[in-house]
Amino acid sequence: MSIRIGAAAAALLVCTALTPASAQSLGSQPVRGKQAGDIMLGASVIGVLPQDGGRVSAIGGRPSASNTATPQLDLTYFMAPQLSLNLIAATSRHDVEVRGSALGDVDLGRVWALPPTLTLQFHPFPQARFSPYVGAGINYTVFYGEGGARTAPVTKVDIKNDFGFAVNFGLDVEVSPNWLVNFDAKKLWLRPDVSVNSGAITGRADLDPWIIGAGVRYRF
After folding, report:
1. What are the C-alpha distances in Å from 197 to residues 12, 99, 141, 194, 203?
2. Alpha-carbon dihedral sign for residues 139, 209, 141, 218
3. 2-18+36-173+186-219: what fold?
4. Residue 161 in 3-state DSSP?
5. pLDDT single digits (tens) 97-153
6. What residue spans of the chain are helical by DSSP H?
7. Structure pTM?
8. How far is it, in rounded angstroms, from Cα 166 to Cα 162?
């Protein structure tokens, strides 16, 4: 449900950005393109899609985290027309559990994740209205607010903060000299250690999420 709501919000955000272009077609507007020193501030709606995988001691099974949708802010700085640094800021809440353990499916409650990610991006066609890019970088995810409903015998869950690598690709569409529509996808390699009941059960969650979003960017 949250993913459907997020998708609807993203579509509304993109349509809002394209509204000025409805009065004057994109093709009739000159393309400014990307230039060294440009700073872009973006707002988008993203879907965070963790993968199921990992290991669990003692009871076995497979760690799992739910998909979710959330707002995101990002900042991009262009060192050259073809090279930029991008930093994202967002936080998302996930339901977590162990599936297929010796005790069946075990509810671990919920957790919030804060995954700032810095990527170096390459823009092969910086002067094009439809300007794709690819990138790679690093991520550091902070897990906090573990809690919520749990099933016995779980009393405490601790998910360790974790570093990971990231790759991404996307597309900027210039709708005016200052406004762009953005579509972006990132893949994170994120495999935090998990402790249940103060270490009575331990494991590793191979989350490796996709982060897929759509939004608008303002260029200063």
Report:
1. 43, 17, 22, 10, 12
2. positive
3. Porin (2.40.160)
4. coil
5. 999 999 899 999 999 999 999 999 999 999 999 999 999 999 999 999 998 877 777
6. 2-23
7. 0.84
8. 13
